[in-house]
Amino acid sequence: MTNRPTPPPGEFLYLLAGDADEFVATCADLLPADIAESLNDLPPDGAARVLTALPFHLAVQVLDESMLERRDEVIERLPDAVAAPLVQALSADQQVRLFRLIKEGDRARLLHVLDAGTREQLARLLSYPPQSAGGLMTTEYLGIPSSWTALDVRQHIARVGRAKETVYAVYIIDEATQRLARVTSLREVIIADSGTPVMEIGEGRKPVSVRPLTDREEVARLIARYNLLAIPVLDDDGRVLGIVTVDDVIDALISEQTEDVQKFGGMAAVEEPYLDAGFWQLVYKRAGWLCVLFLGEMLTATAMGYFEHEISRAVVLALFIPLIISSGGNSGSQATSLVIRAMAVREVSLADWWRVAVREIPTGLTLGLILGVIGLARVELWQALGWYNYGPHHLLVGITVAASLVGVVLFGSFAGSMLPFLLRRIGFDPASASAPFVATLVDVTGLIIYFTVAYLVLRGTLL
Amino acid sequence: MTNRPTPPPGEFLYLLAGDADEFVATCADLLPADIAESLNDLPPDGAARVLTALPFHLAVQVLDESMLERRDEVIERLPDAVAAPLVQALSADQQVRLFRLIKEGDRARLLHVLDAGTREQLARLLSYPPQSAGGLMTTEYLGIPSSWTALDVRQHIARVGRAKETVYAVYIIDEATQRLARVTSLREVIIADSGTPVMEIGEGRKPVSVRPLTDREEVARLIARYNLLAIPVLDDDGRVLGIVTVDDVIDALISEQTEDVQKFGGMAAVEEPYLDAGFWQLVYKRAGWLCVLFLGEMLTATAMGYFEHEISRAVVLALFIPLIISSGGNSGSQATSLVIRAMAVREVSLADWWRVAVREIPTGLTLGLILGVIGLARVELWQALGWYNYGPHHLLVGITVAASLVGVVLFGSFAGSMLPFLLRRIGFDPASASAPFVATLVDVTGLIIYFTVAYLVLRGTLL
Asked: What's the whole-model pTM score?
């Protein structure tokens, strides 16, 4: 039941070449999202032909799908007579999405064919940043004068309901001030007696709302927290500018998630699907961070330079370098991922840094002790079994490894947990504290800890 | 507007100790989610007292909030006479959530006070895995006999609407077979003429549905893709077992996101908020993976053992070990995060592994060449400026570093991108391919590549 048969893209054009009625009949049984996905696999010319052949209401629905890619290229290939009514019929938020993509020249051409009201509204919506509430919102909400009754609302919805993005959230507007007075739901309107004034329907709590510049992550958080189907966007005076609906928020959540995972992997966010992203784009997005990390990691070569003398005297020390520094990086990346996530879901705020520090220090110490014991056992076991000869001072070598692990894991957990706070404090996204970033930070310090411990433990024997 | 004043938890008990009317008036203006959050900060006894003092309908709403923590402990502290009607009034999905938490003994006590119908339903819902559609679904959906008209539906909602989880998705049930015949929306029902038979309302496409064992990630994907407010869960015969609503899916998406970020940081998922999780739980969740990674990383010490002779002859080689192996780990973690994400959003399936491989090989080669050039420049620059003396064969050392970087970054990108495929192929979650996991995997190989290249380039000179 789950998997619906989406015709392979070739078939679309084949159907189109054949019987037009059959084409329309096939499409009528498909969901707009599935048609949009098929169009994504066609060249823009083919997609434009399919879109032209579809019944108008279905073409609008397909173009309204947020999963439709390259919508700008498809629209640019349509004649004005086809494009204008389609674009005009789109919901305001999808018009904005489209115009953000369209090239300057075509923008003017398309704006020209739109009516004055749409044009004006579009210009206003385009002025908000794309990841803000203003940039996501649509203006097709259900605004109801505060003097109406439940019956008035029901009759109004029956008349204009199809044109609204959602009719399930009902926004009641004070007639004198034009401010948002109350929010209720269509459910409450239907349950209420016909004559009930709208101002008495449902629970009279102060509505949850956002401002146009509120970030999409905050919008998503509020919609999730209060189980809303839409959230109103208010201006300074409390007037409704538009609404952001739950489906846009889900799309935003998924994009945000992709961005976070990629950032945590240590790279710039790639917006296109992986297999669609160009080769040079992929290299470009990855090379930047990779080079930054590489330059940072060069400090390890510098640090090691200072210890070259120690290494030449006790080559056995070199054997444990990767083991020790990687343990610091691993514990650091655990701590970072915990804190980034706790920040994202608002469990932890900037002011909580010391509460986190107070937890991470004993945790890091305990984890370090666990690894230290295993490390010491490794050295002694290999020595006892004759698998490797760490020399006459093998016990001291084992102690050096164990003590260094305690220090390195403790430092890794601490630094990894504090880095997101530091980044946020200086105005960066805490999610930029990627696992590779933490590892690089901890590597240099790890080397210094290791060779300092070695110097203290092995002075007079190996060193 | 965004930030609503939530009274601090102490104030709740203070209000309760004082004027009961004032307490109720204060609470009436708060949203259930905000009350739930305040209760989270109270000890379970206090939370139970507040819950008892709240008006019944508000107490039910608060208990229905998915953000309410320790709901089991709160319920256990309520007398049967208070607990029974509250639990009975909860929506089915929240009842299930509650009973999953409640201890065996209390379960029997509470089940006993519930009515037979609720008890039976609960037992059935509890039998589904918690992260499946069956485990998330609620049974309070709007099922409409196929012979009804639009007016019948509207009148029915006015009567029973309050008891349904959502009334916005209307499920039309074939009277003969009891199968799901059609899905329409309340919007369409309101727009339709009163006499229109429900089977003629809206667009007659085959409904999108899931099975009880469908994973919550797939449920979320379908709801997002088709912009649904709810999705029906059907049995083998096409009968509706329940529905999963969009707000549950958002909660699931956020949990899934937390799990993924923590996994990618190289640890078991922690379900409690970071600051609430116990010390030993945190150590336990982290120590497991940390030890596994540590044991894996021990192979580096073994590998280095084989090269001890080379290091003692050319200590200069040791200086670049951290730099080279970390570059492999970093490029690997980039590739892994890209592929994990592409898999999660279904851009890439198991069968696409070779398309990914074909992209990653040239990408890795290019990235390796970029780092290689920087690495060579570093060695020659430091030598020329007199910042460090790499000896008479400094150019050969530089070439060794550069060539190793090409090999290591190429291998890292390739291995990092293939690992999620391998994990999925053998039945693991591809998201288990954490950044530290990839780094560990690449470290050992990186050392082997480095010393092999060194042997080839430096044979006869340094080695």
From this structure: 0.76
